[in-house]
Amino acid sequence: MPQTLLIHHIRRILTPPPAHQPLSGKAQGSLHTHDDAWLLIEDGRIVGSGSMSEPLPRAERRFDAEGGMVLPAFVDAHTHLVFAASREGEFVDRIRGLSYQEIARRGGGILNSALRLRQTSEEALFAQAMQRLEGLIRLGTGAIEIKSGYGLDTESELKMLRVIRRMKEAAPVPVRATFLGAHALPPEYRDDREGYLALIEREMLPRIADEGLADYMDVFCEKVAFSADETDRLLEAADRYGLRPRIHTNQFHSMGGIEVAVRHGAISVDHLEVVNDEEIRTLAASDTMATLLPSAPFFLNDPYPPARRLIEAGIPVVLASDYNPGSSPSGNMWLVWSLACIKMRMLPEEGLVAATLNAAHSLGLADHLGSIAPGKKAHLIVTRPAPSLAYLPYSFGENHVRAVLIGNQWYF
Ligand code: NIG
Ligand code: FE
Fold first, then answer.
1. CA distance 243 to 265
2. pLDDT on residue 18
3. How far apart are CA 395 and CA 375, in angstroms?
4. What percentage of the chain reaches a pLDDT higher than 90?
């Protein structure tokens, strides 16, 4: 017997159209709406919708939306959810005047997280990360990408990726794994960059590929991390194992990362706080998407990515949280959406498409997630009553979630 669920008295269903490609340019802001509606779900999949003025279909379970809106759950396409400890000490150091990059050069930052992660068991990391994920689901996240990159030695990187694999099996939402061994140069290789690059190529990548532990490859292309040439070489190695890149680049400097990423057919370039016209042209001429992470420049008091210029150049934009202990200790996608509108002048519609359908495309999940359409998985947010779509990012800091549906399961 199929299990049916009817959500009724929905003020407005809001969704990107179920496009087979990421939406860009003018289409980045296109949404379908259905007012005064009901939505029928069968065995965790959307069957169809109708108007409250029509007779309501029968269903075993019913949920009264009480005038709330229904949106697709967020897809968070860039996080560092597996970590061992928070870093509020560095937060206070920055308040006192140190910069993120100075802290990194002093051996804090990512290296601080690596030290703690190496000392923490797989079991403990798994329990912590699952608890964080549960919190994010209650905030409306219905799929997530998680990176390694706090291990920085073979065993610890494998440990992180095994934690993510266990999360794939245990979590109620899809989880995608990205190998970010090239996140920082570990202290043991301080005077031997070549040694660490070779370790990634000759030991980490083959073992990760052998165990099928990663879906994607990431490199932090930045002055405090790896150069464009080093990124090029690592992406070449990843290519041999069939790992497509999605890379951290242009967070603090423009130094060739975008050009290298595009040349390697990257799915996405992430951050882009600092990006020049030529790089925008390179991206526009490629299939690589731009993933913007506005809670990182918010937290670090940095300039924001030029979202308008990217959208106007026809580049599909994704929004993600970058949840991590150093530059964005929050996975709240409502805040990300608000910052996108307030600080980057994205329209509310553009922000929702970026955080749902485009993000789902970037993770290869768009056949099942990212919009509300017959056949797609019912990963949905029911909001508290709200007068309009724009109200959601406008009233920043408010909790808009009344309930989150993941298939057959409600989260409150
Ligand atoms: O995306 N920029 C590099 N990686 C993370 C920060 C990691 C950390 O500080 O722990 C980011 O901002
Ligand atoms: Fe990141």
1. 11
2. 83
3. 32
4. 99
Closest atom of ligand 1 relative to the 110 alpha carbon: 10
Please indicate whether residue 110, judged by its CB atom, sits closer than 6 Å to ligand 1: yes
Alpha helices in 106-143 (DSSP H): 110-118, 122-138
The pLDDT value recorded for residue 287 is 98
Residue 1 has pLDDT above 80, yes or no: no
The model carries a pTM of: 0.98
* CA–CA separation, 181 and 112 (whole Å): 15
Residue ranges of domains in the chain, CATH in brackets: 4-72+370-411 (2.30.40.10), 75-362 (3.20.20.140)
pLDDT for the residue numbered 37: 98
Q: Taking phi first (over 0 means left), then psi (-120 to 50 degrees means alpha), and beta for anything else, what does residue 407 get? A: left
State the residue for tokens 């301080």. 190
User: Is 331:299 a contact under the CB 8 Å cutoff?
Assistant: no
Closest CA to 382 of 5, 117, 30: 5
What is the structure's pLDDT at 16?
A: 98
Q: How far apart are CA 182 and CA 192, in angstroms?
A: 14
pLDDT score of 221 more than 90: yes
Q: What is the pLDDT of residue 2?
A: 82
Q: Which atom of ligand 1 is nearest to the CA of 271?
A: 1
* Residue 108 near ligand 1, beta carbon < 6 Å: no
Exposure string of 190-207, with b = 16+ CB inside 10 Å and e = fewer, is eeeeeebbebbbeebbee
Give me 378's structure tokens: 């019912």
The sign one gets for the Cα dihedral 173, 295, 126, 140 is: negative
Q: Ligand 1 pocket, 249 CB below 6 A? A: no
Give the CA count within 13 Å in the CB-facing half-sphere of 108: 19
- By DSSP bridging, strand 401-406 and strand 379-385 are antiparallel
Does any ligand 1 atom lie closer than 6 A to the CB of residue 257? no
For residue 290, what are its two tokens? 């731009």
Q: What is the 3-state secondary structure (H, E, C) of 211-262?
A: CCCCCEEEEEECCCCECHHHHHHHHHHHHHCCCEEEEEECCCCCCCHHHHHH
* Structure token digits, residue 91: 């937060």
Contact indicator for 182, 220 with CB cutoff of 8 Å: yes
